[in-house]
User: Fold Copper-exporting P-type ATPase from Paenibacillus contaminans.
Amino acid sequence: ATPTSIMAGSGRAAELGVLFKGGEQLEAAHKVDVVLLDKTGTVTEGKPALTDVVAVMQDEVRFLRLVGAAEQGSEHPLAEAIVAGIAERGIAIPEAVSFEAIPGCGVRAVVEGQTVLVGTSRLMDMHGIAVRHVGARISELEESGRTVVLAAVNGRFAGLVAVADTIKRSSRQAVARLRKLGLRVILLTGDNRRTAQTIARQTGIGEVVADALPEGKAQIVRMLQSKGHKVAMVGDGINDAPALATADIGMALGTGTDVAISAADITIMRGDLNGIADAIEMSRLTMGNIR
Ligand code: ADP
Ligand code: MG
Assistant:
């Protein structure tokens, strides 16, 4: 492409809220044939709400105080939703004295002398905690598209909370557009398989890779590249940064974290996934490669 057509292409993309880091990225995007979409905050609004509470060891208020205290130090959208939901229930949340985030898994904190773990089943497995008596409830919640967050207190399973996130209004249409462009679309998430499959079905995405840790997301990108694919990764979170940097084209949402934006080649200013198709169409146009 000529410098003039690159200038024109970048300008038109910018009008659509699609910012290319440079001309090189505008030229490269037309080669993409696989698009990986992060779930939370990308396909969904990333503003989940606390919907269910199951306390198995103590009463619900005591349980939620500990969960809230542990999550208060986390910047994860799930944690923010859980803390907000607990506060809305009029429960006073105590301070945690020690806090540690375990990326893609959850948090660990000490609250009123008790060690509290909040997060995925992998987090429970890592600490040898058996999750008992709630298997059917977990399946049911996950099949409805909710994310289940497990909690343990002093090494024993204490209960769970569930959060529901809404799919962005534009996601389904944007996915259909990507498929029309001949692209293979895959949902790539750190969330569990059942929840991910429900969200994928509701959005028209045919393939799902679930339970992916941040480095696991980058590995999926490399695996696809080794098969000759040109991969676009779209994400919003710190957990997406390694995959965004590894992908042939990393696309961050302007609504996402600074870490994701600086790891990406393209920023989609509005959170709307139509920006992905806009970016690829603009690149194809610029490269005179309209399919
Ligand atoms: P996604 O790929 O959907 O954006 P993440 O990689 O950020 O998700 O997180 C993967 C999973 O780890 C989440 O679905 C959640 O179950 C769990 N998790 C991560 N951080 C937290 C937290 N602070 N509190 C509870 N669960 C968490
Ligand atoms: Mg995300």
Remarks:
- The radius of gyration is 20 Å.
- The mean pLDDT is 95.
